[in-house]
# Entry
Amino acid sequence: MTSFTSTSVPRAADDPTKHVNFVQGMVLGVDDFNQEFAWLSERDRWLARDQLGYGTAWGLAVTSGLGTRGPEVRVSPGVALTPRGQLARVTPAQCASLNDWLLAKENRAGVEENVTGSQRLRLWVVLCYRECRTDPVPIPGEPCRSEEDSMAPSRVTDNFRLELRLSRPAQPEEDAVRDFVRWMRSHIEVAKDAPTSVSMEDFLKAIRDAVATGSPPTSPPSPNSPLDPMVDASPPGPFFILKEDMERYLRAALRLWVTELRALWRPNWLGESHGCTAPVTPEPPGPGDCVMLAELEVALVKSGVAGDWQVDDAADAIRILEEDRPYLLHLRMLQELLVSGVTGATGPEGPQGPQGIQGPQGIQGPEGQGGEAADVVRHPPELPEYFIVAAGILSAAPGNPPNDTYNRLRAFNLAEGHVGFTFDGYSLSPEKHQYIVKAMLVFNAEFAHLGPVTFGGLKQDHFLLNVFDPKAGGPVGVDALRQLRFVIEVSQYFLKKEG
# Structure
């Protein structure tokens, strides 16, 4: 009897852009079933990676703790989409002993090379998709075979692989998406008038220039750092856009991302060939088809016996960093965020703006009916008190003695376009009482063109009056304000009747 081994020509990878065109009378074989599966599975991956992206979908929390073999890293059950569009499912929870990993022969050289001077080691927890062949069944064949040769797996089962790596996994599209949005947020501001608004052409050119400046090989990324594909121009923004044009500009920027920019950082898993003219050979599985779950910063010490690296016993020896971890929010969460209208907290009150230009005088109303003559101010007996609390003719310059004013009405402070006044007993208690301020300027031939005095509001210890210069088109300067005199009367009314 002759012993021999059969050989066969390796079969080319199935073209994921082709599916079986069954014609009556055709006999389907293994290649046809494999081809149909390749097409169907690639459609799912294609849709996932192009329309959804990649990252953790749920679970896969990375934690650390003390196990039976020392400090360990743990990953909870969960699901992620890989950059290629594969669904990777982890179950049950997994753990890895860091000391065992450090002692492994294949890791020793890399560990020695990457430990920093402060005896810290950066590691990355990475999830990959893989398959395993299961459910063996007997198959026909030649005689004189071993039991192993007479069985073959009948199923290909989804599986996963968790790795600890010494270098950051490449995730160019994830880094580019974050940097693009960050660049847009930091460079776009609302313009107040048309002359300051950037043109559409200059806006899109600035985005293209930022990409050209930040893309390798001009600026290769630092080792183990996120890709920085967009760099500020010189000088950097911001770019002012009118509020009514904002939607149109944002649509143009997103269109530029879809049609030009995304392809720069997106792996071409199907290659450059088209199935109708040349066979499509997809990219083989590789280290780029994995998802980062976390970065670890591990404090190490040398063991006293063999001198090997091991994890420090300190409580904070293992730091888990997840800022760069990609993840996907499901549509229901996005829907709820949109419907509920999540907004940030209200910011502080901004500074008071300049007084606007005085408008035209309104039409004079009809003369009212004359009332009974009286020599006192009266109010209905059922209402709270109302009376004058301060009055006088005085200068706007602070520090002048209020000798000729009622209740020591005096100038408090001075700023461009604003004069503050106060009096004895002034208090800001809007829940108890309010002040009514009547004011006008004493005629001054040098400043006869000034507009009327307007009320600027009640402050904690004074009230404000505004003075506008219509000729200059802005607030009156401090030097001019010092030369003005005001006629002021302040009344006070209470909101509730005492007693």
In short: Helices lie at 30-52, 98-103, 105-114, 172-187, 200-214, 246-261, 331-340, 478-481. Residues 1-10 have pLDDT under 50 and may be disordered.
